[in-house]
Write a structure and sequence with these properties.
mainly alpha; 24 helices; single chain
Length: 449
């Protein structure tokens, strides 16, 4: 297999393990780039972005209000007034939730833009893997807590992350874990944990789902989060994935992870999102499984993965997800979401929504689609509009003053060369803002080659 150039490998590393290259990143060597992205050092730039506060959910009407409403049903005028107050309170609460989610989303986008290690990119990956949407959770504080847990464990041991997610507040709400109790099991979380998070289809039986649900009983959600209530827990012997015992939630997670299929499943998911849509062959999976090891070390696995010949395969191109594309463009243009005017922030979020992807809003427990799904005509129109908006906020003097503007905008975006067709199209665009926007929508930038 003839691989891509060393510089192209560096670009691919920045695309796949981060959100594109910052100015100067492409001048580093492969080894130095791997050390920066996957080394043990902290991401000081991202950590400097202050964590948002004030994300507590709006208060519900108190019980006395509800009782008053019940007592006065015979007085229509007071009932009408109460109904209006309830409606107004609901609208106000929804506005507050929307403002909290907006704050949380902009904070994470800021972290993505300034991040210097693979930690933030892997946090984004795990968000899509353990996909949880605030549309149902409706609690920005819980979404933040889940996000912080995924970040803290992103490059550590997958077992620690999986066990944390199975008792996570947002996960439990999203997959109806609070409805699972002794004598009235809800199998949603048990099924998705095996099918989408740890094993994949075909590696468990329906009996494992039913018995797994019993392991997950006892967890309830209160205003301050998930708590375990033993009286709701279905204790006693359970047989799950060939093992028998009085298992609880963390035991269930460990049983799933102990299955031979689990390592290959996790490796395959990471490969699909970070390397290629073509699955790795058996020999590659065997080597990567060795790197992953019994401790299920994600950092070690990724280090081995980017060293595989498949990572350098010219055909291993990936279409950038909308968030990856937008964050990469923001980074290249040195534009921070948190420093934009409120109106511009609204346009940024609307652009991401128009392309079909907002952080904290995956469409289902299966996460977001991949590949050509992002290349629809409507998404392309929105992409160009957003690129124009962001280019207007950037200092484009390096493009405006260049003799060869097409090459200059390529250098700005981290694109070494354009196809003849793309170069011809770009050569006809004189305005630097429009040139940058069109270049950011060209195949050479939209696809991570």
């Amino acid at each position: 297999m003839t691989g891509i150039s060393e510089r192209a490998v560096v670009r691919r590393l920045n695309d796949r393990l981060s959100f594109g290259s910052a100015p100067g990143d492409l001048e580093a060597g492969v080894d130095a780039t791997v050390r920066r992205l996957l080394g043990p050092g902290a991401d000081a730039a991202a950590a400097a972005i202050a964590v948002p506060t004030g994300l507590e959910p709006p208060a519900n009407p108190n019980k006395q209000d509800k009782q008053d409403k019940q007592d006065k049903q015979d007085k229509q005028d007071k009932q009408d007034k109460q109904d209006k107050q309830d409606k107004d309170a609901k609208k106000a609460a929804n506005r507050q939730r929307a403002a909290q989610e907006r704050k949380l989303t902009l904070w994470w986008l800021d972290r993505m833009v300034v991040s210097r290690t693979a930690g933030e990119r892997l946090t984004w990956f795990w968000h899509g893997h353990f996909a949880t949407s605030n549309q149902k959770v409706r609690n920005a504080a819980w979404m933040l807590a889940q996000n912080q847990t995924q970040r803290r464990l992103a490059l550590g041991r997958f077992g620690d992350l999986a066990q944390a997610m199975i008792v996570d507040n947002a996960t439990i709400r999203w997959l109806d874990g609070q409805r699972n109790r002794k004598g009235s099991p809800n199998e949603n979380l048990a099924r998705e944990f095996m099918e989408l998070f740890t094993l994949g289809i075909g590696h468990y039986q329906e009996a494992d789902v039913a018995q797994g649900a019993r392991c997950l009983t006892g967890w309830v959600l209160r205003e301050d989060g998930a708590t375990f209530q033993r009286r709701r827990f279905d204790s006693g012997t359970k047989t799950v994935l060939g093992r028998t015992g009085d298992f609880d939630a963390k035991d269930f997670a460990a049983l799933a992870l102990a299955q031979p299929a689990s390592a290959a499943f996790v490796i395959g998911r990471l490969w699909f999102r970070l390397v290629s849509a073509t699955p790795p062959d058996a020999a590659t999976v065997a080597r990567l499984s060795t790197a992953y090891g019994s401790s299920r070390d994600v950092r070690s696995l990724l280090t081995a993965m980017v060293g595989e010949a498949g990572f350098r395969d010219p055909s291993a191109s990936l279409v950038k997800q909308p968030v990856e594309w937008a964050v990469g463009l923001l980074r290249a243009l040195r534009v921070r979401p948190g420093k934009l005017a409120e109106k511009e922030q609204t346009k940024l979020l609307a652009g991401l929504r128009g392309m079909g992807q907002l952080p904290y809003r995956p469409p289902s427990v299966g996460g977001w689609p991949a590949g050509a799904s992002w290349l629809t005509t409507s998404a392309g129109v929105t992409r160009l509009q957003l690129a124009q908006q962001l280019a207007k906020k950037a200092d484009l003097s390096i493009v405006d003053n260049a003799t060869d503007r097409v090459s200059a905008v390529g250098a700005l975006l981290g694109v070494d060369s354009w196809s003849q067709r793309t170069r011809s199209a770009l050569a006809g665009v004189k305005d630097p803002v429009q040139l940058t926007a069109v270049a950011a929508c060209a195949p050479e930038y939209v696809v991570s080659g």
